[in-house]
Amino acid sequence: MKLTINEVEHDLDIDTRTSLLDVCRDHLGLTGSKKGCDHGQCGACTMLVNGRRINSCLTLAVMHEGDVITTIEGLGNPDDLHPMQEAFLHHDGFQCGYCTPGQIVSAVGMLSEVADGWPSHVSADVKNGTSLSGDEIRERMSGNICRCSAYPNIVDAIETASAKMKETA
């Protein structure tokens, strides 16, 4: 099978029961995405597939042939960080760092959802645009757990990155 991950096409000969997370970590050396719970409950394994965030521990790699897959390694690099990565550094949006890749990738996907007008349980009216309040961010990021409780800094980082990404859009 062929998978396109971070704009690189990979020819793979893998067991059809292998998760996308395990392909990236064990077969391709892309270890940024973490295996936190292996049950889709923590968000440490979040990747973007065709721009939409998913828990990569819950999906089989064979389901994503032809899809565009982005991991934390595909968002930026040390010399050219993604605005969300910069904001997490600036706001100290991490402590132990284990959940950080999933938080960052999820935040990038979440901002796309907001831009596309997706509703949430906090949004009163998405027809007129969604305000990215702290409550809105917390609700939309609720699938990503930080056991160190860096949530206030994560919310601040997302607010900063959102504003910066709107300026450059």
TrEMBL record:
Among InterPro entries, the record links this protein to: 2Fe-2S-bd (IPR002888), 2Fe-2S-bd_dom_sf (IPR036884), 2Fe-2S_ferredoxin-like_sf (IPR036010), 2Fe-2S_ferredoxin-type (IPR001041), 2Fe2S_fd_BS (IPR006058), Aldehyde_Oxdr_Iron-Sulfur (IPR052914), Beta-grasp_dom_sf (IPR012675)
Gene Ontology terms, MF aspect: 2 iron, 2 sulfur cluster binding; metal ion binding; oxidoreductase activity, acting on the aldehyde or oxo group of donors
Return the Pfam families for the record. Fer2, Fer2_2
Q: Report the PROSITE patterns cross-referenced here.
A: 2FE2S_FER_1, 2FE2S_FER_2
Q: Which PANTHER family match?
A: OXIDOREDUCTASE, IRON-SULPHUR BINDING SUBUNIT-RELATED-RELATED
Q: What is this protein called?
A: 2Fe-2S iron-sulfur cluster binding domain-containing protein
Q: What keywords does the record list, in alphabetical order?
A: 2Fe-2S, Iron, Iron-sulfur, Metal-binding, Oxidoreductase
- Ranges for domain 2Fe-2S ferredoxin-type: 1-75
